[in-house]
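Notes from the 1:1 (GR / supervisor)

We went over the backlog. Supervisor wanted to see one worked example end to end before approving the batch request, so GR pasted a single chain during the call. The sequence is below; no edits were made to it. Supervisor asked that the structure be written out right there so they could see what the output format looks like.
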Amino acid sequence: MVRAYTIVSMFLLTLLVTRVTSSQVNAPCTWTEISEEYDYCGDSLTRGVPWVSPLKVCCDTIKLNKMKCICQVVTKTFSQNFDFYKLSKLSHACGDLLVPGSYCGVYKVPKGA
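Structure output shown during the call:
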Protein backbone atom coordinates (compact mmCIF):
# COMPACT_ATOMS: atom_id res chain seq x y z
CA MET A 1 0.00 0.00 0.00
CA VAL A 2 2.83 2.37 0.90
CA ARG A 3 4.49 1.53 -2.41
CA ALA A 4 1.31 2.50 -4.30
CA TYR A 5 1.22 5.87 -2.53
CA THR A 6 4.89 6.42 -3.34
CA ILE A 7 4.31 5.67 -7.03
CA VAL A 8 1.25 7.94 -7.16
CA SER A 9 3.15 10.70 -5.35
CA MET A 10 6.07 10.45 -7.76
CA PHE A 11 3.68 10.53 -10.72
CA LEU A 12 1.93 13.64 -9.40
CA LEU A 13 5.26 15.32 -8.72
CA THR A 14 6.39 14.53 -12.27
CA LEU A 15 3.18 16.01 -13.67
CA LEU A 16 3.61 19.14 -11.57
CA VAL A 17 7.23 19.64 -12.65
CA THR A 18 6.31 19.04 -16.30
CA ARG A 19 3.43 21.50 -16.07
CA VAL A 20 5.58 24.22 -14.46
CA THR A 21 8.41 23.70 -16.95
CA SER A 22 6.12 23.77 -19.98
CA SER A 23 4.38 26.92 -18.80
CA GLN A 24 7.74 28.63 -18.38
CA VAL A 25 8.79 27.68 -21.91
CA ASN A 26 5.64 29.25 -23.37
CA ALA A 27 5.72 32.35 -21.19
CA PRO A 28 6.35 35.59 -23.09
CA CYS A 29 9.78 37.16 -22.75
CA THR A 30 10.19 40.13 -20.46
CA TRP A 31 11.28 43.48 -21.87
CA THR A 32 14.58 43.00 -20.04
CA GLU A 33 15.22 39.70 -21.86
CA ILE A 34 14.25 41.23 -25.20
CA SER A 35 16.44 44.27 -24.59
CA GLU A 36 19.43 42.10 -23.66
CA GLU A 37 19.10 40.02 -26.81
CA TYR A 38 18.93 43.10 -29.01
CA ASP A 39 21.86 44.65 -27.13
CA TYR A 40 23.95 41.54 -27.79
CA CYS A 41 22.69 40.74 -31.31
CA GLY A 42 21.53 44.06 -32.75
CA ASP A 43 24.70 44.69 -34.77
CA SER A 44 24.06 41.45 -36.66
CA LEU A 45 20.51 42.50 -37.54
CA THR A 46 20.97 46.20 -38.32
CA ARG A 47 19.47 47.32 -41.60
CA GLY A 48 21.50 49.10 -44.27
CA VAL A 49 24.92 47.85 -43.20
CA PRO A 50 26.90 44.74 -44.20
CA TRP A 51 26.35 41.53 -42.24
CA VAL A 52 28.30 41.36 -38.97
CA SER A 53 28.91 37.95 -37.39
CA PRO A 54 27.27 37.70 -33.97
CA LEU A 55 29.26 37.85 -30.76
CA LYS A 56 29.52 34.68 -28.67
CA VAL A 57 27.39 36.29 -25.95
CA CYS A 58 24.69 36.89 -28.58
CA CYS A 59 24.60 33.23 -29.61
CA ASP A 60 24.80 32.00 -26.02
CA THR A 61 21.83 34.18 -25.08
CA ILE A 62 19.55 33.39 -28.01
CA LYS A 63 20.29 29.65 -27.80
CA LEU A 64 18.61 29.58 -24.39
CA ASN A 65 15.19 30.14 -25.96
CA LYS A 66 15.81 29.49 -29.69
CA MET A 67 15.43 33.19 -30.58
CA LYS A 68 11.97 33.37 -28.99
CA CYS A 69 12.58 36.79 -27.40
CA ILE A 70 13.90 38.32 -30.61
CA CYS A 71 11.05 36.81 -32.64
CA GLN A 72 8.47 38.06 -30.14
CA VAL A 73 9.02 41.64 -31.34
CA VAL A 74 9.57 41.00 -35.06
CA THR A 75 6.71 43.08 -36.45
CA LYS A 76 6.34 45.25 -39.53
CA THR A 77 7.96 48.13 -37.63
CA PHE A 78 10.99 45.88 -36.97
CA SER A 79 12.06 46.50 -40.57
CA GLN A 80 12.53 50.22 -39.88
CA ASN A 81 15.78 49.46 -38.05
CA PHE A 82 16.50 45.79 -38.63
CA ASP A 83 16.72 43.48 -41.64
CA PHE A 84 14.27 40.55 -41.75
CA TYR A 85 16.65 38.50 -43.89
CA LYS A 86 19.44 38.75 -41.34
CA LEU A 87 17.28 36.77 -38.88
CA SER A 88 18.03 33.61 -40.89
CA LYS A 89 21.73 34.47 -41.02
CA LEU A 90 21.78 35.02 -37.26
CA SER A 91 19.97 31.73 -36.70
CA HIS A 92 22.45 29.88 -38.91
CA ALA A 93 25.50 31.54 -37.35
CA CYS A 94 24.33 30.49 -33.88
CA GLY A 95 23.46 26.90 -34.71
CA ASP A 96 20.37 26.88 -36.94
CA LEU A 97 17.91 27.89 -34.25
CA LEU A 98 14.97 28.72 -36.56
CA VAL A 99 13.11 25.97 -38.39
CA PRO A 100 12.69 26.57 -42.14
CA GLY A 101 9.04 27.28 -42.91
CA SER A 102 8.31 28.50 -39.37
CA TYR A 103 7.68 32.08 -38.35
CA CYS A 104 9.87 34.44 -36.38
CA GLY A 105 7.28 37.10 -35.59
CA VAL A 106 5.85 38.15 -38.97
CA TYR A 107 8.91 36.85 -40.85
CA LYS A 108 8.57 33.43 -42.47
CA VAL A 109 11.86 31.57 -42.31
CA PRO A 110 12.68 30.49 -45.88
CA LYS A 111 13.07 26.82 -46.79
CA GLY A 112 16.73 25.86 -46.85
CA ALA A 113 17.66 28.70 -44.47
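Supervisor's comment: Confidence is low (pLDDT under 50) at residues 4-24.
Batch request approved.
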